[in-house]
Amino acid sequence: MHTAIETLLRKRGIESVNDLSPEEKQQYDQWQKVLVNEPITIPRFVEFLNVQKSIVENSLTNLNNSTLVNDRLIVQLNIYSKLLKFLDSDKTEREALIKYLTTLTET
């Protein structure tokens, strides 16, 4: 348990997580998840961006969207796509260089 949560529970006279109501337990679990979560890594960030991009792509298929909603979704899609492309650029550049060097060694 994170020390900030532990301090709060003690201050409120709660000795155990088991003493919490179902709603309080749900809030506790959410706080605990946030506080003990590992730092954001590039692979986790890429996963997040891919999920968000998929959500936007699925939302764009809704024929009942207004023009304003679709415009905003397109902006979001562009942002997620450009971030993914940026994060993948080193890998793409490295692969292109390897391919180029390989062709030079084959001749």
Please outline the helices and strands:
Elements: H1 3-11, H2 22-36, H3 42-60, H4 67-106
Secondary-structure element series: HHHH
Mean pLDDT, nearest integer?
89
* Helical segment count: 4
Number of domains: 2
Low-confidence stretches: none
Give a verbal description of the structure.
This protein is mostly helical and 107 residues long. It has 2 domains: 3-36, no CATH class; 42-106. It has 4 helices and no strands. The chain has helices at residues 3-11, 22-36, 42-60, 67-106. The longest helix has 40 residues, at 67-106. It is flat. The model has no long low-confidence stretch (mean pLDDT 89).
Give descriptors for this structure:
78% helix; 107 residues; 4 helices; mainly alpha; 2 domains
Describe, in short, the structure shown:
The protein is mainly α and 107 residues long. The chain has helices spanning 3-11, 22-36, 42-60, 67-106. The chain is built from four helices and no strands.
